Each structure stands twice: as C-alpha cells, then as structure tokens.
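hi! just following up on the protien thing from before. the input was this:
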Amino acid sequence: MLTLRDFKAIQNAIGVDTANEARIREAKESLRRELVTSVHYMSCKRNGVEQGFVVTPSEAYHKYEIEALPDEQLFVGDEIECMNEHWIVVKTRVASPFQTIGLMWLCNFKFRWQNHTPEIIERWGVLDSGVYSTTRDGNGDLVTPDKQFKIYFPKDPDTAKLYIDKRLAVEVIYDANGNEILNVYRITGYDSVSTSYGQGGHLLVLNARSEDYVPGKDNIKELICDYIAPDDVPPVGGGEITGMRTIRVGGARTYTADFNVVSWSVSHTMWGVAINGDNHTARLSVDLNDDLVGEIVTIVATGDDIESTLDVEVIA
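and the predicted 3d structure came back as:
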C-alpha cells in the first residue's frame, strides 16, 4: 500500500528537488506494483497494441472505469479490447502528474461503409439512442426520449472521411410487406473537437437520424449503404458526380466528383440555393422555403477539360 509520504510525493511531483524526485520514483514503483496485483488488473489491447489496465465496473453495465499504470498513456478516443469486447474511451482525467484514469463505453456495433471506393471499412463504435449519454446510472431509464442518435468512433484516417449526409446501415429489418430492408441512419452532425479534450484526444462524435433504405443502391448482404461494387468504379477522370438525387428544403447534402474540379456551380437562378466546394467535394444547401419544393437544381462541376452535371430535386 502507498504510504502518506508516497502520496505527498505524488502531490508535489512538479518542481521538486532531487530528494523528492527519488521519493516520486519510489511512489510510482509502489503504485505500479499495487495496480498489477489488483484483481481488476488485466492485459488489454489499446488501439491494437498490448497494454495492461485496471478495469472496474461502474453502476451502469455498459460503462467501465479504466486506470492506466504510471507513465503509460490513455487518451479520449482510444479503442480498448478486453473481456472479449470492444470499448471506446470517452473521458479521461489526470489522477496525478504521472497517471491517467478514464471512462470507457461498451461498443454495440461494428459499422461497415465505403469511402468512395470498393474497399469496405469496418470499425467498432457506439450507436447511442440516449442510454449511454442521458441515462441515470444504475437503473437504465432514459431521462428524455430523443429520436436523434449519436455515433461514437475513434477518429482515424478512415473515420475522418465520414461526412454529413453519409448514410450508415446498422441491421436488416422487415417492411410492412415482409421484405428485407436495411435500418439506416444519416449523419447530420460531425464533431471531433469539443469532445477530444486533452493532448492526444481523438474521439469522433456524429449526430444521426433515421433515413430511408434505397433499393438498388443499398446492399443488404454487405450491410452497406450506397454500395460500390468492384466493377462499378468509374475510371479516373470519368466525369461523374455522386450523391443523393433529392434534397429537403432547409437541408444540405454533400456531393463528390471523380475528377479534379476547378469550379462548382448550380444552374438555378432562384434565390435560396447555394453550393460551395473544393477539389472533389461540394456542399449543396437549400433555404427553408416551401416555394422551392419541386424545383430541379442542376449541379455543375467543371474541370480543366471536362464538365459534369447532376439533377437534384427539392422536396418537402
């Protein structure tokens, strides 16, 4: 067990003299010995790399506290593999100048999607309807029901390419006629800043709402929306714009071109329609104006030696 002198050394770990530094080193070693002999200490994987942690249950069954050993890292957004499950670290705090503890949530789904190519991306994440973020600890009762969901991912080069209006499937369900369809969510918000506090934080939080299954575009077998088959990839410079063919008044959607675009525009003179883009992607927005319902907006992407268009209908 740590002595009073050990704890005083920990509390005075910044700006100490050589004698105190020796006591701090002893305190670290003592704390490490105590942690690794705990019944809650276990070998885990952090972002795919072996690392030991002390893992203890909280009052909520899907939330566990996690404690790193002295001088070892733990960041918001880390993926932890332990107890044959996948977890995401959503909170951390520095318990002393040389130790970090945190809170991790149990992942409930392995998402599958494509980033503009046939390659299928798979990541464990949390689809939260409010049970994780707005539940009273211990009883599982929702404080307030909300149809808007949140999706939590570790931010990495693949999850960073997710965008607003991207559609993600989570399960196969049935419609009123007994046909298989996908349960789909559309990303409505993207935040990798406000929740990734602290050096090394890399937590991505997406807002999402229920969206329609689109036959012919969504692949039930692969559980992927807007599926790109290997033989469906247009050649580089093929001149294609991809994206949803409808947009709601008051809404916005993202569109992608498979060639280098010099300028994006819309062939529509009615007030309330705008497009802004860079090299390959553009964001189309429509004001909340019912007079625009039924209008066809033509997106125009112009390159050095190519021009492509896509018609998008404004709906209520």
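The chain has a mean pLDDT of 83.
The first helix runs from residue 4 to 11.
cheers
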